[in-house]
Every structure is written in structure tokens, then in C-alpha cells.
What we know:
The protein is an alpha/beta fold.
Amino acid sequence: MALEDGFPAERLFNQGFSYTYDDVICLPGYIDFPTDAVNLRTKFTRNIDLSLPCISSPMDTVTESSMAVAMAALGGIGIVHYNNQATEQAAFIRSAKSRHIPLFSDLIFKAPSDSIDSAGEFATSPCIFVTESGNSKSKLLGVVGKSDWEKLSDKDVPVADYMFESTVSAPSSYSFEQAAAFLAARKLDYLPLVSARDGEVVDVFTKDYVERIQGYPALGIPSLDKEGNLLVGAAIGTREDDKLRLEHLVKAGLDVVVLDSSQGNSTYQIDMIKFVKNTYPELDVIAGNIVTSYQAQNLIQAGADALRVGMGSGSICTTQEVCAVGRGQATAVYKVSSVASRSGVPVIADGGISKSGHIVKALMLGASTVMMGSFLAGSSEAPGAYEVQGGRRIKKYRGMGSLEAMSKGSDVRYLGDASKLKVAQGVVGAVADKGSLLKLIPYTMHAVKQGFQDLGASSIDSAHKLLRSNELRLEVRTGAAQIEGGVHDLVYYEKKSF
């Protein structure tokens, strides 16, 4: 009798159990290629490819301009949240689309007649720009360096009296290498980056940037549109006023739209999919969130270009305990991807990602990309300021179903209404400082590549072939097995991922 290890996914996930990522383990395959040979290029939607399977979640403590730029520069994509006014969300998109270098500075502007009263006005920027009208949209006249301002004996005079009159700038389309070479050739400390479209100062490149980026792993292949600008996505709801919001976002340069609902199988979302496809036929639409095959079939038939999978699996989400509806994320990803793959619709595994092994499992179970919230929150690119609690640097992280977030407008995601009672489906919390994504993501993706190598999959496509051919074998882990698979039986240890 032939020996058989584990179970194929089809058999494992059809026994009536709802499994999370930690409940299952992949059995190793055969290695005949090095780790560096693993290719993580993937389909994000029907028409958009990414060099890395990483998406940042449209949460107001995760994705605004800085996160979107960093994700696209690394080869993934960021989805800008919509817990704001349409004009503000559009401004985040324009800001991200105008940049090519994944580091931000606070841009401070003054008019020639203004004065600088304190060093605090510089914020984190090494300089203040002087323009004709005191904002980014007028002609650049000069620059005031913080170190130069600190040397002034009389600081009450207008900035026009002592600014450095300089018209030296570079296009915002410059790559890091181009900007670094320009800075070095002219022996500058900082360099204004100006949009070629409207002459607006959109960023400042500094010597500190050069040192910081050179200290990070190589960025890889960025996600770019046809014009060579970074890809940026955004989320909207399914209400009538979201159609006007979408018009603002498309004008700002939006590349892909996510229809954001906690339960996506609704007449509201299906109607919105059809509206977007009819009004903006070149714009890909991501639908969801869903967890079942039936939901997937409805949204695919409506015209969805990708499906977002996950309901109640996020670390700050309480939908399953409050509403008694949802599904274990491993089961949900497998079930939805089994249906979506027949129509060539990519699946985005959204939620439940807290370690690189979860990414490996999501991709092996049929997802083409993973969407991350808590994994990216706390990074320097995430919105919000750091605080110190108990000796640890932390940043706020909240669910879009928390009462705090819903008071800002996210209740539309949960089919709420301003005139009705609001019931929380999320919490407000905090996550530890993770440093920059420019370090976190490359190291995480290398760990994913090692996982793929152990499984005998040299690409995401080959992983899906192993899954569908039943060559991929899995087992369910008991509670004891999960403990054994982690750090255990130590009096003390220090855990560092890289």
C-alpha cells in the first residue's frame, strides 16, 4: 500500500471546519532551485500586475500618501482610505502620483513678507520654501535653511530679507539615483522637487535621504502606470455620493478602485460595480469583502476585476463575535479562489496576516496578493505620530468598524446610517514601531521566498498549480502542534525577524 502524506486542499477544506492560517500547515515539497530564483510577480487585478504580492489596507491608520508611495516603490500598491472628504482623498492620490522617491518630508511654505517665529515651524523639514503666495501652488522664490535661520541675530524680519534666492530644483519624476547625483554634483544639502505638470513643489530631497535609502535593501521593481508614475489605489463606498467621490479620484489619477464593504455580496455593491465599469471602463474594480463561493460568483458575474477576501479576520475586527458571521481566513481564501480561478479573477487575501508564514499560506491557498493592516501599521510610513508607553514606541491602530472610526464616516462600510444606532465591529488599539517599510517588506518577502522554496514552488503561479493538482499537501495542527511550532520551553528569549 502506497504511503500518503497529508491531504489535498480540496479534501481538507470540505469537512465543515472553518480554519485560520495557524490551524493548517503545508508539508514540504522538493527543492531544485535556489531561494533567489523564486519569482513573486503576480496578478493584482485582471489588468494590473505587481512585482510583489503586497497591498496596504484602506484604513485611516494605515494608508495615506506616504504609505502609498512606499508600497508602490517596493513593487506593491497602497489603497488610500476614504474616511475623509473626497477632496482630501484626491489630494492624497495626487501627492502620491507626483512622487517617485519613497521618503516624505513635511513641506513648509512662507510668503516673502512672513516671518519665522520659532524652530518648531520647520517641523521635520530641513528648510522652509518661500513662494509668491506662501503655498505650494505658486512660484518658488527662495529657501530658508533651518541651520541658517538659527544663526540669525534678528529673527523678526521678513523671510525675504535673508532667504537664499534659488531657482535650483529638479523634476519630481527623478528617481532616487538621479536626485542623489544632482544633489552631489551641486554640493547641496537639500533639493526642491517640482511637478512638471504645474510647477508645484511636491517634495524636498535631502542628504539624509541618500544615507537612509542606501542603508536599506534594494527597492526592486516599482509599480508604475503607463506614464511611468507610481500606481495608487483608493477605496470608496457604495452610496450615491460615492459616485461623485470617484469622479474626484479619477481626475486625481486613480489607477484602481476598491469597493469597500464589510459584506460585499449586496445589491448596492453589484450596482456600483456596473456603474464603474460603464462610466470608467478602463478602471479596474476590486469587489468585496467576501468569504464564500456563492458571494464570489455574484461579484464576478457583475464584472469585478479582483475579489477581496476576509470577514472578521483582522486583528482589530470584531465582526465574527458581534454579528456571528464570517469565516476562518484559510478556508475563505481557498473557497473563493477555487471559484475565482475559473474566471481568471485574482483573489486578495485581506486580514489575518501577522507573520511571513501567513503570507506563504495565503498565496499557496490560491490568493494572488495579500492585503495587510496591522502588519504595516506602526511603520514610519503609516499615518499618525508615535507615542511612548511602557518604554515602547507605538502608533494608534484602529478598526474601521470601531466607534471612533465610524464617527469620522466609516460607518458606511457597515451599511450604517447617521440617523441609526451604531454598533461597533472593531476596536481601537496600538501597535509597536516597526521602522520603515523599506526594510520591513524586503526582509518579509525574502522569508516568503524561503517558504516557497521549501514547498517546491518557484513562483505564485507554480504554487497555484501545486494546489489545483493536489500535489500541495496540508494537515491540521492541534493546539499542541501549534505551540511546538513556535518558540517554547525557554526561560527567556529575544525574538528578532531580521
